[in-house]
Amino acid sequence: MDYKAAERIQDLQYFGEFGGVNPSISDSSTYTFLTAKTMFDTFEGNTEGCYLYSRHSSPSNLYLGEAMAQLEGTESANVFASGMGAISAVIMQLCDSGDHIVCSRTIYGGTYAFLKNFLKKFNITTSFLDITDLDVVANAITPKTKMIYCEAISNPLLEVADIASLSKLAKKHNIPLVVDNTFSPLNIGAAQLGADIVVHSLTKFINGSSDCVAGAVCGTKDFCLGLKDVNNGAGMLFGSTLDSLRAASILKNMRTLHIRIKKHSENAHYLAKQFERDGLKVVYPGLESHPGHELMKTQMNHEYGFGGMLTLDVGSLDQANALMELMQKEKLGYLAVSLGFYKTLFSASGTSTSSEIPEEEQKQLGLSQGLIRFSIGLDNDIHKTYLSMRNCMETLGILSPDTALV
Ligand code: PLP
To answer: Residues bearing N6-(pyridoxal phosphate)lysine (predicted)?
Structure first.
């Protein structure tokens, strides 16, 4: 697949006010107009080249939006104050009261809670199902269904969605396919594979420094303008606007995304292979044992690898907690939620980022209490990291010292 997203991002050139190599930051909430007529026209939606008010748009947010559009290869993109700000705006923009959503059953806990609990207020219902079973997905679509929603690589179980097939199905029913590509920016070109709308939490890999929350929606120009509409736009009216200073700093971090993703993937793949040889219960899309491995190979951009996320099931919550505490003590990473940091981050998903999903449902999904989700960091010597992690597991009896070192 000819995937030139990194080159497209690199080719974007915006100069600062005084010829700076970075664009100037728009440090204003409001903008002056030379004539009252232009102000009126801007309110009417003729916004080309004009700024109104920073909740609507600002130069810094447009620059970052442009970079996000280049990442996904979409016509346009809007940025938001968080991933959930982006996701909730898309869903509220597409659904009316009484509508229905078809959604993967393994998704980020916040998205699950929004769909399952919050949307009850609007009588919007969601069928949570196995997104890898296309017949099940097709059978769940009703005349009230307004979208198919999934994550390209799911949080936390790392299921791989067949985006091209889901897109065909969505098109057949004339509904959009919305894909959250937070776990796999550059690894998977979700829009290129057929997603109509791609959402991202920029908080994670894209920003990469765990210092802010932000989100983005990538889609057609019409959809993105609609989100900003002063009368009906969920982005404009819910007001989950990203601050310009943050937009500027995320844009700068995004320029190294291609290098970071390659290293995250290389390190995660190395650890996954070693853990599997050690007989541990590891899940990683790059392993042949992963049920989505072959599919992943057909839809990934190979130079970026299989991504930086893996899971390890160590049998019980007590063991998981003990291992995470020990790994943190040994400076192997942080016991923290989130992902995409230079340090490895680990958390037990069932009691943290997926705790919104009732325990009974977690069991049905195969999300056990002993499952640790790892976001693998940019460690320079990953073999050394592996040996130290192995030591921690031996200390806790998770791994027998007799297991041969490879
Ligand atoms: N989507 C996925 C896959 C996530 O993992 C998260 C957060 O963990 C979100 C969306 C929400 O993003 P944010 O925390 O930026 O609102």
So the answer is: 204
Query: Considering only 131-135, 223-227, 363-367, 385-389, which range has the smallest mean pLDDT?
Result: 363-367
The residue whose two tokens read 């699950």 is 112
Which atom of ligand 1 sits closest to the CA of residue 84?
A: 16
Question: Which of 13-22, 286-295, 385-394 bottoms out in mean pLDDT, i.e. has the lowest?
Answer: 13-22
With contact defined as beta carbons under 8 Å apart, do 267 and 284 qualify?
Answer: no
Which atom of ligand 1 lies nearest, measured to the CA of 202? 15
> Is the distance from CB of 26 to CB of 59 less than 8 angstroms?
yes
Structural contact between residues 159 and 295, judged by C-beta atoms closer than 8 angstroms:
no
Task: Tell me if 307 CB under 6 Å of ligand 1.
Answer: no
Q: What is the dihedral of CA 101, 206, 109, 87, to 10 degrees?
A: -30
Q: How many angstroms is it from 78 CA to the middle of ligand 1?
A: 16
Joined tokens for residue 121 = 């207020």
Ligand 1 pocket residue status of 151, Cβ below 6 Å: yes
Partners of 372 in the β-ladder: 312, 348
5-254 belongs to which CATH class? alpha beta
Ligand 1 site, residue 156, Cβ cutoff 6 A: no
Residue 10 DSSP one-character state:
H
**SS3 assignment, position 199:** strand
257-395 topology per CATH:
Aspartate Aminotransferase, domain 1 (3.90.1150)
Task: Give the pLDDT confidence of 112-135 residue by residue, as tens digits.
Answer: 999 999 999 999 999 999 999 999
Residues of the chain with CATH 3.40.640.10: 5-254
* For residue 277, pLDDT beyond 80: yes
Does pLDDT of 1 surpass 70?
no
